[in-house]
Amino acid sequence: MLYLFLAPDEYLLGQRLGQLKQALGDAEMASLNLTELDGARVTAADIIYHLGAMPFLAARRLIIARGYLANLESRLGTAKSPNRAAQDEARQVLTCLADQPAGNDLVFVEEKLDKRRALWRGMDGTAGIEQLSRDGLLAVEDIATPDARQLPGWIAKTARQEGIAIEGRAVQMLAAYVGPDLRCLRMEIEKLRTYAAGRSITAADVQLLVSDSGEALIWDLTDAIGLRDGRKAMRALSTLRRNDANPFYLLTMITRQYRIMIKVKDETARMSGNEFDVAGRVGESPFPVKKAMAQSRNYSLVQLEAIMDRLLTADVGMKTGADPATELDILVAELTRPRKRN
Predict the structure, then answer these.
(1) Fewest 10 Å CB contacts: which of 48, 116, 145, 296?
(2) CATH entry 3.20.20.70 includes domain 2-142
(3) How do the domains of the chain map onto residue ranges?
C-alpha cells in the first residue's frame, strides 16, 4: 500500500507509523524489513529499488521516505525555467506509483506540498498525486495537530479509546492548560486515570494535578473581582499564596487577564463571534478569550482602562518599597468595592 502523510504532528505520526510497523509482524524480523530514507538524498531510482525489494522472511517491507516529494517539487522549477532532469524523475516516480508494485508499503512523510503544482495535479499525461488518490492507489492522510476547536474532541476520543471516563469540563480544562502538545496531553490523561482510580476524571482533578493550572486560579480571582465579590476574591488570592505564587507574578498575571479583557471588549464591539473566532482575531487562546468575553461584560472600556492604570500604580508601589502582599490586598479590596449608585 502507498501512503502520503501530510503536515504530520510528531505524536500522531509516531502512532501511525507504529501501526504500520506492527503490521510487519515479529519486532525482530520487522527491523530487517524497515527502510527509512532521507528525501533530500535519494532519487526516484532509490525509491523504486527499495519498493521492489523482496521482504526477508516476512510478508512485506515498509519504506519511509521523509521529505522526498517536497524536495523534488522544489527542484522542478517554474514553467519559465523548468528543470528537465527533475521533470523526468517526477514522471518516473509517479509512473511507478501508478503501477502499484505489490508486496511492500511505501510512506511519504511531507510537511507541505503545493496542490497547485505538477506533482499534485499531474504532468504531460502522467497522473499526479491527486489522481492517484482519487483512483485509490495512494492513501493521502492529513495527520496535522488538532486546532483549538478540534483539541477537546481529540482528548475525549483518546480517553474513550482507553476506556477512561472524563467529564466534559475536565476535557475543556485539559485542552486549555496543556494546549496542542499531544504527547504531553497523553501523559496527563494517564496521570489523571491513575489518580481517579476507576472513577470519572473531574475538573477538580485537572486543576489539582495538571501543570499550569495557576492560570485557572488567576481567572478565579479575576472572576471574583469582576463580580465585585470581595470575599471570594480574597479566598482565591489566599489559595494562590498557599501555592507559593510570587506577588509580582500574581500582579503580572492579573494585569495580563485585564489586558485580554480590553482586547476582547474592543474586538467584540467591532465584530461578533464565538471564542474561537475572537481568539483568532486577537491572537490569544480560546479558553482565556471565552473567560474574558464573559467577564468584560461587567465593565465598560473606560473602567477597564482605569483598572489598568491602577495596576500600573500597584506595580510601581511594589517596586519602590511597598509591601507586596499588602499592596495586593489593597488592590483587590479596591477592585471589588461595590459600584456607587447614582
Answers:
(1) 116
(2) no
(3) 2-142, 151-209, 214-335
